[in-house]
Amino acid sequence: MAVDAETQFHVLAVDDSLLDRKLIERLLKTSSFQVTTVDSGSKALEVLGLREDQPPEHNEIEVNLVITDYCMPGMTGYDLLMKIKESSSLRDIPVVIMSSENVPSRINRCLEGGAEEFFLKPVQLSDLKRLRPHILKGKSKEQEKENTTIISTSTSTTSSSGSNKRKAIAIDEDLAPNKRTRLRFSSSSSSLTLV
After folding, report:
1. Per-residue pLDDT reduced to its tens digit, 143-162
2. Cα–Cα distance between 169 and 175 in angstroms, integer?
3. Average pLDDT across the chain, whole number
4. Less Cβ crowding at N or C end of the chain, within 10 Å?
């Protein structure tokens, strides 16, 4: 199943094990994802543009999801997760943690820290099928931010009449006037009518 480059999602895979990195890369490519692999959390931060010596917000590539091993020397997958979630520009990127160890406290810590999923290794193709909804959710959060910025900009530059405010609220809530429904009670027929 081929996917156009425009609709192909980019996944950053982080694992210190060459064998695991090659496996996850192959599985992701089989699932029609574009993949960049790195062997450490610090290299992942470099790709994401989060290194201290880089200019702020300097992303090398656009990443739609990060999948990272938990146990890595230097920076764990949890540490990488925290760095991503602390970044104002990258916090909406979904992060998935993987580990060969089934430690419930570790899994809960990662999920409570903002990880979308926790996969046990070896990762299976069926696991990767669960990634797309998280990527789409991350994309919709990005678009929601952009729409909110556009709306706040347009409402501040237009007059502040009641009509414009109502329109901005309707746009912000993604409700067009023709999509709204109301219940109307008719006393003559004693029934509810959807209007």
Report:
1. 565 555 555 544 444 444 45
2. 8
3. 77
4. N
